[in-house]
Design a protein that fits this description.
This protein is an alpha+beta fold. Helix content is 50%, strand content 14%.
Length: 949
């Protein structure tokens, strides 16, 4: 052996190296190069989860903001505008000072003071806000050319409002002017009217309207122009609708009618109102900017409105404008309606969010567990060779953070681009939470696994590992939390606590906690049936069945996480699917009750005789059932008793009874309404003479609503119709609902028992598929109301809060299902190396490929079957437990008038069975794919010496 003087071996000399200590390769770079696929998979998982987590609160903000804007836009400007008004100036002021207080300059000063008192987040829309002076008590205008529908003179209000020219365009003539200073004694002023006022009151350019004077001659108002509003639906015109269009008033005493209109004076002509008896008042109208407020500003908006109505804002206005200034608005009620709707929808969305978030968190933990299991030998060796636990954990944290932090930032950026125009803070917090969880999951898992130095660990399958006391205490704690959440939800409902506090979050977590309890219980009970089945299976021919049961019974003890993910996802999917199905069912039922059939054609008078034939010939109509409805019939027992208002419905017993049965709305056999013999026949000659004065002596069978049945019983009683005809009925059956009427007490009788006039149909109930609303309306003609069930149902989805919540709910359930499939795949991937090695060894012993496939399928089937059955049962139990406390009415009909009462959560069979069957299909498919892939690779590679499996 030859060598150099320093004892090194001879060999080929390479390039000279620099002297000094060798610098080791950085740990993080080395680890990332050693396992690039694992790092890439972790980055994709973190980026996807962070993007979904960050997008969720922004999507909620988007649809809530859209819902708030829709609520404000749907409310009339008269309700949303904050109106301030002050009476005429103090009588102690001189006439000149009083006149100056009504001029535009003084009103403008007060307007600036009002705007200064508006606190954010409430922002005034200066383009639509207005101010001026008007007569609060319109006065008679006796000019003969003005319209008089019943001979009564019209009444006019004088209004001097700012910026008339900016908000209108002249249709004819010109805008009014106040060239000379206008005073209370001015004899004539100029004015303009809108096109609708001019058309209705018969006013033309050049007309002179005379208004009574106060201790002076009548004021002459010369019309110099007719103007058309530029934005007729804007707050400038609609805060006080009278200035845009006149209103027809009916006197309650004699039924006489008269018009009330407005004459628009020049903005500086306000002082002339002091010379009229119309009680002039100054006003300032603040229209809110509906494009600015957001849903998370609701508390501030409510406070700002309250401050203007009766708080510090109004006090400042009174101090700077007039001590007698008062305010009125319905904006607080509009905001309250939105808050009520949101508080009814938010808890349901929170349930889906917590469910999907739990499944995603479990999947991230499973990914870290897979990495810890893959590197178990490496970390154990580091600890055995002197590596400190903090040092090892620090290296793991660093290498995970290098991957997770950029991935989390990428996910956050993707969410910000995908869902713009929403709050940033909540999205950043959600993405940060995902990133932190991904960073610390692996170090924490390694800390528990390697806190003690050991080279060889014991068995860790569920057959040998026994639950510790800490685990028992933790499971009992979760059980207590789940019980408390379910009890709170059943007692107070999901929207009982609208403050969004910890109690509200606990209630939203209730379905998740139910799934957690089920997972913990099933993990504990899982080995026992397998052990019981192992004995009988061992007596079967072949080795596949007993070997698969033995393998399934000795699976890893860490099966709790995948089972928790699957059960939580299945529970959330069943719960969410049942919620969505319940919402759709509630809308369908409400629309059905509102129309009584697939479509309804109704008029306040009798329908034309030829109309049923025309309607039956319309495309899509299968049947048209005529009914006559008298909504104000009076039912009474005896002539001296008070009448009970009810809807008397005359029907054809056969077709109407069949329609009721098909729709599930109080069906009955036709014989129920047909007479059974003499004295009870429906052939009432006195009622069929068409005179409308039938005696009603023949007793007619009737079907009644429960309230009428309770009051009148089965004894005969008289019913007087709107045409003064009478019919005597006896209640023979009771039904809760009927297609012809909704939310009214009703009596159903055979139409043959009514007078010819009363029996004429007033409504048609249509059935059929794909009804054409336009064609039905053309066939029905004018003066007839046509309502389609599909159109009524669509009207219930009015607020973006509803549609947005449904989309978010569907996306959350879909995301939870996707993460559940990923959890199942991770669980199978974790056991894949061991299964591949086992399959290779068994093949060397003569196991065929078909037997290998059956072995892998049967080994994975018990866990998948456990998750599927457990998930279905847990979802069913969660729905049954939580349904009494959940009200779906808010998300179903959004507070719109809808019959049918409260919409409750009910179990949906498809939502329970489809996700569970999907779990079985995925588990079986993955097992078959693994068997096929292992067969392609061969057995030599799986049986290499020194393999760590």
């Amino acid at each position: 052996m030859t060598g150099t003087d320093d004892g090194t071996k001879d060999g080929p000399r390479g390039p000279a190296r620099a002297s000094g200590p060798r610098v080791p390769a950085p740990w993080v770079r080395t680890r990332l190069r050693a396992a690039p696929a694992a790092a890439l998979a972790l980055a994709l998982l973190v980026a996807l989860t962070a993007a979904l987590a960050a997008a969720f609160p922004r999507a909620v903000d988007r649809y809530e903001d859209a819902g708030l804007r829709r609520t404000l836009d749907d409310a009339s400007p008269r309700r949303t505008t904050v109106q301030f008004f002050a009476p005429r100036p103090d009588a102690e002021l001189s006439l000149g000072d009083g006149e100056n207080a009504l001029r535009e300059a003084a009103l403008r000063k007060g307007y600036d003071a009002v705007l200064a008192a508006v606190d954010k987040p409430l922002v005034a829309d200066r383009a639509q806000s207005s101010y001026g002076v008007r007569t609060s008590d319109p006065t008679d205008a006796s000019d003969s050319f003005l319209a008089r529908p019943s001979g009564l003179p019209p009444r006019v209000a004088l209004v001097a409002q700012n910026a008339l020219g900016a908000h209108s365009r002249p249709a004819s003539g010109r805008l009014p002017r106040a060239t000379d200073p206008v005073t209370a004694t001015t004899s004539e002023v100029e004015a303009a009217v809108t096109t609708e006022t001019a058309r209705t009151l018969h006013i033309k350019v050049g007309s002179v309207v005379h208004v009574p004077g106060l201790e002076r001659a009548p004021l002459a108002v010369r019309i110099t122009g007719i103007v058309a509003p530029r934005e007729p639906d804007g707050a400038y015109w609609m805060s006080t609708p009278l200035i845009r269009q006149p209103s027809l008033i009916q006197l309650p005493s004699d039924g006489g009618t008269y018009w009330i209109g407005a004459l628009l004076l020049a903005p500086d002509a306000g002082p002339v109102l002091l010379g009229t008896p119309g009680k002039p008042e100054r006003y300032w109208q603040v229209a809110p900017d509906t494009s600015g407020p957001t849903a998370h500003d609701m508390s501030g908006l409510a406070s700002a409105v309250a401050a203007l109505e009766s708080g510090p804002g109004l006090a400042r206005i009174r101090e700077r404008v007039d001590p007698l200034t008062d305010a009125t608005t319905d904006l607080d009620e509009v905001l309250s309606s939105f808050t009520e709707l949101r508080s009814g929808i938010a808890p349901l969305v929170a349930v889906a969010a917590f469910g999907a978030g739990t499944v995603a968190a479990v999947v991230v933990l499973m990914a870290s567990g897979l990495a810890a299991e893959r590197r178990r030998g490496e970390l154990a060796l580091l600890r055995a060779r002197g590596g400190s636990l903090p040092g090892v954990l620090g290296r793991l944290l660093a290498e995970t953070a290098v991957v997770a932090v950029p991935a989390g930032a990428l996910g956050l950026g993707t969410a910000l681009l995908a869902v713009p125009h929403a709050r940033l803070s909540s999205a950043v917090a959600a993405a940060l939470a995902v990133t932190v969880l991904a960073c610390v999951a692996l170090p924490v898992r390694a800390a528990f696994a390697h806190r003690a130095v050991r080279v060889h660990g014991g068995r860790e399958d569920i057959a040998s590992v026994r639950p510790s006391r800490r685990r028992t205490v933790a499971e009992l704690t979760v059980l207590v939390l789940a019980t408390a959440a379910v009890a709170a939800l059943r007692r107070g409902g999901a929207d009982a606590d609208s403050s969004g506090g910890s109690g509200d979050q606990l209630v939203a977590l209730a379905p998740v906690l139910v799934g957690v309890i089920a997972a913990l219980v099933l993990v504990r009970l899982y080995p026992f049936p397998l052990r019981r089945l192992a004995g009988p299976a061992g007596r079967l021919r072949g080795v596949v069945a007993p070997l698969s049961l033995a393998r399934a019974g000795r699976t890893s003890a860490s099966t709790a996480l995948p089972l928790l993910a699957l059960l939580t996802a299945l529970t959330t999917a069943a719960f969410g699917g049942s919620v969505l199905a319940g919402v759709h069912t509630a809308r369908d039922h409400a629309a059905l009750l509102a129309t009584g059939a697939d479509a309804r054609i109704e008029a306040a008078h009798a329908l034309p005789t030829a109309l049923p034939g025309r309607i039956r010939g319309t495309r899509g109509v299968r049947e048209a059932v005529p009914v006559s409805v008298a909504y104000r019939a009076q039912a009474r027992r005896g002539s001296g008793t008070a009448g009970e208002t009810a809807a008397l419905v005359g029907v054809e017993p056969g077709p109407y009874g069949q329609l009721s049965r098909e729709l599930g709305l109080g069906g009955f056999p036709a014989r129920t309404l047909r007479a059974a013999g003499p004295g009870g026949g429906s052939n009432n000659s006195s009622n069929n003479n068409g005179s409308g004065s039938g005696s009603g002596r023949t007793v007619v069978p009737a079907i009644a609503s429960p309230a009428l049945a309770d009051r009148f019983g089965t004894a005969p009683f008289s019913v007087q119709l709107e045409d003064d005809s009478k019919v005597t009925v006896r209640i023979t059956a009771v039904r809760d609902v009927t297609p012809a009427v909704t939310d009214l007490d009703f009596l159903l009788v055979d139409r043959e028992a009514l007078t010819r006039r009363a029996a004429r149909p007033t409504a048609l109930l249509l059935t059929g598929g794909h009804l054409d609303g336009a064609a039905l309306r053309r066939a029905a003609g004018d003066g007839v109301d046509v309502r389609l069930r599909a159109e009524v149902r669509t009207a219930y989805v009015h607020s973006p809060l509803q549609s947005g919540a449904e989309r978010i709910y569907t996306a959350a359930v879909a995301a939870g299902a996707g993460y559940a499939v990923l959890a199942l795949l991770l669980a199978l991937v974790r056991a894949a190396p061991e299964r591949s090695a086992l399959l290779a060894r068994l093949r060397t012993m003569g196991l065929t490929r078909a037997q290998g496939r059956r072995l892998l399928v049967l080994e994975s089937l018990p866990q998948a079957l456990l998750a599927a059955v457990g998930g279905a049962l847990t979802g069913w139990a969660a729905i049954r437990l939580l349904a009494p406390g959940l009200d779906l009415t808010a998300i179903a009909v959004a507070g719109r008038p809808a019959p049918g009462g409260t919409a409750r959560l009910r179990t949906d069979a498809l939502s329970l069975l489809v996700p569970s069957l999907a779990v079985l299909v995925v588990a079986t498919g993955v097992a078959l794919a693994q068997a096929w892939w292992t067969g392609r690779r061969g057995s030599v590679r799986e049986l290499r010496a020194g393999d760590g499996r």
